[in-house]
Amino acid sequence: MSADKFERIDRLPFEKVFKDPVHDYIHVRHRIILDLIDTKEFQRLRRIKQLGTAQFTFHGAEHSRFSHSLGVYEITRKIVDMFERNYSDEWDPNMRLVTLCAALLHDLGHGPFSHTFEKIIGSDHEKFTTDIILSEETEIHEVLSRVSPDFPNQVASVITKEHENPQVVQLISSQIDADRMDYLQRDAFFTGATYGAFDLSRILRVIRPYENGIAFQYQGMHAVEDYIVSRFQMYMQVYFHPASRGMEVTLDRLLYRAKFLYQEEKLYPHFSLLDPFFKDDYTIEDYLRLDDSVLQTAINLWTTSDDAYLSELSTMFLNRRPFKSVAYDKGRDEPIIEKLRDIVGNLKYDKELFTRINSSSDLPYDYKLKSKTPIHLMQADGSLIELSEASPIVKSLSGNLHGDHRLYVPKEFLENNQKNKEVSMFQEDYDEFQKYIVNDRIKNPNKN
Length: 448
Known about the structure:
Blueprint: H1 3-9, E1 11-20, E2 24-30, H2 31-37, H3 40-43, H4 65-86, H5 96-105, H6 114-121, H7 125-134, H8 139-144, H9 151-159, H10 166-172, H11 178-191, H12 200-206, E3 207-210, E4 213-217, H13 221-239, H14 242-263, H15 275-278, H16 284-288, H17 292-302, H18 308-318, E5 324-328, H19 330-346, H20 351-354, E6 356-362, E7 376-378, E8 384-386, H21 387-390, H22 392-397, E9 402-409, H23 421-443
Parallel strand pairs: 4-7
Antiparallel strand pairs: 1-2, 3-4, 5-9, 6-9, 7-8
Helix pairs in contact: 4-5, 4-11, 5-9, 5-10, 6-14, 7-9, 11-13, 14-18, 17-18, 19-23
């Protein structure tokens, strides 16, 4: 049975809606979508926070991967509906179901605290997403297979960007896709930031398919500009916030220590759900048992560990006492940074556990990226122009990495503490370092 025929007979007798703070109502018209939402693998996303450690900086950021995934589905549904109404010659209706399913399931493989946990186990959420979709043992796979035996592979190919239809891939993964449109607005809403607000309704009005992908009508350029600037601001002000990164560093170091202790057969208290990942021998079933609450429980238990380092790091994370940081110039200041790390290591702290360099960088937009299709504007005569050629604002942001490098150390090392001779010694070096940076920037105001 073709996806188009299945889609017609799969319609629900009454539309199902989910009330959403960002999109008002999320509309579900197909039983397969509703059945996918009801699977245990998708319901697990309720238990995984969207913003990871950023929730410790922005206390309202309690939203989940579940709500974000529904939001991406809803934006995609609106776009596909509009394509079918207005661009029947350019859009293949047979692509509707695979596009909607890929939009809904694109974040299925996220784990607890996402990227920090991924670094420890040496995998990534996209690989887990496709594994969950393709595994015959999952409810997700069973639901998708109702369309056709090959349908799970089709959905997975959208996630891996290998699907034969570039329009479908770009709607889910590009420099302006449904995923980014939702998380910018959703994260802005729940963090209380205004940076992520852009004219979504206008973008959904001017987006259009063409033979090789997705473009935007030229008259909608300013709405697309606004999106690019909003994305830049959210990364600089929210996603790269120093305090959030401090909590991420704390989590990274405590997981690193726990894994080391496990491999040395010294980890106590023992927490069996994490064993497969500490010994690098885990299955999809092992992974699907994990969520934020599992990791939080393990960390709570480790505060009583007889290993002083693990206990201290776990207590720091649980009680929100993150590492603190100082920004530095990577090329210029590295000798001083290493000196400061050595001072920490020479005291009561382990240098590798209690100092960490954290770098953040983002490209708001780049027309040269080979992995991402440039954003194109369609002019009145049907010709395409790349966005940065038409927009001076986007051109100024394009191709430039934005972010910083920071040294993270325990909080007391960046505070005045005359009673602690060791800390005050560090303070002198830190003050010298700060004066070096300030004086050098005053003398060289144009230096990056």
